[in-house]
Amino acid sequence: MPSSLYICYFGLGQHLVQTQVIPYLIEIAKDGVEVSLVTFEEDLQDGDAANELQRKMSRKGIDWHWLRYHKRPSALATAYDVLRGAWFVRRFISKRKPDVLHGRVHIPMLMAVLARKLSGHKPKLLFDIRGFFPEEYTDAGIWPENGPLYRSVKKVERLLMKEADGFVVLTEKAREMLFPESADGGVDKSGRPVEVIPCCVDLKKRFPALGTAALSADVSDLGLDKRFVITHVGALGGLYLTEEIVDLLAASRSRRPETFALFLTQTDPSIITPLLEQAGFSDRDYFVRKVKPADVSDYLRVSHAALSFVKASFSTQSRSPTKNAEYLACGLPIIANDGVGDTTEQITTDETGVIIREFNAKAYNNVLDSLDELLSDREALATRCRDSAERRFDLERVGGERYRKLYRKLLKNI
């Protein structure tokens, strides 16, 4: 039986791992691949809790391992984790001889490259690039543009690109920027497979067909029956255009006093609530809370529209916002800004929302006019949104099938 080790520099309990790692591994295993996963945990201790997590993952068909995550000092802690991770992977190779090492973004991929160089057995290396990591840090202002850290990571990135045997990117824009020659044949100049796999969602389990599930008591208790609900899911600050989000909400409130701002976010509420209050929202006009992944669909189903505002930059050409797939799965039209991944083309082609190209009062009002037109036939709009989610972002038929196809190519000559 072919086997794979997936290396992830996040903790098992994080939302991203629960929605964008584990479901894909379950899909990959459907092709008879024995999947293992190593994560980096900040708070977990050896003992009953870890053993229970291991049993839980085993029931999903995943052989799970974990290492301690170190946070400070940042650069040194990360370097230490890379070395420990590479040593773990080398021992795993020696003992289990996996056919594929699957690195989720740059740091895990570096562990995989180092481990393979130190091993007699040479697994295939799958570089799951996801985003443009160095550029994201400069665009967000975390690293100085073209500074020493950026240049060092770009040098490492070139090594990872050279050593990889296959690639995953999230958007056609990213493919066009990195592997334009792969658009037709699905391989790069060296004949290595390239797949575009956007951030998908489990439409069967997490987002059932429209109108098939009852709302939870928590959502019903919000009393939103007579409100016009605009929702934002995910982080705030950094590359996310928080002030522009509030400006759009304020423009809606000036037209519709019943506008209600719904934020499902892991970010500290103090980032957003003062801005809402300055814009005239009382505490009865907004809801800001972190909710469980399983509850997200309930909140989305009482919404009228959803927001996806991210700074347009070089790095965000590689982004496939998971929130967009979740919105569409719940029949929600999206208000998104231009210049982020494939979002503009998808929304325009499928008629599932409105694209904003400037951030000013005139643009906000134009967007809200267009939204009103879309909502004039809300049932047809919801159906288009759901159809778009099924066609573009279904976990099994899109994400799972493309990962299985990529693994078949990697395993073909083993």
Shape: globular
Strand content: 15-25%
CATH topology of the largest domain: Rossmann fold
CATH architecture of the largest domain: 3-Layer(aba) Sandwich
How far apart are the first and last residues' alpha carbons, in Å? 11 Å
Order of strands, widest sheet? 3-2-1-4-5-6-7
General description of the model:
This protein has 414 residues and is α/β, with parallel strands linked by helices. The chain folds into two domains: 3-200 and 395-411, Glycogen Phosphorylase B (Rossmann fold), CATH 3.40.50.2000; 217-392, Rossmann fold (3-Layer(aba) Sandwich), CATH 3.40.50. The chain is built from 18 helices and 13 strands. Strands 3-2-1-4-5-6-7 form a seven-stranded parallel β-sheet, sandwiched between helices. A six-stranded parallel β-sheet has the order 10-9-8-11-12-13, sandwiched between helices. Helix 12 links the parallel strand 9 and strand 10.
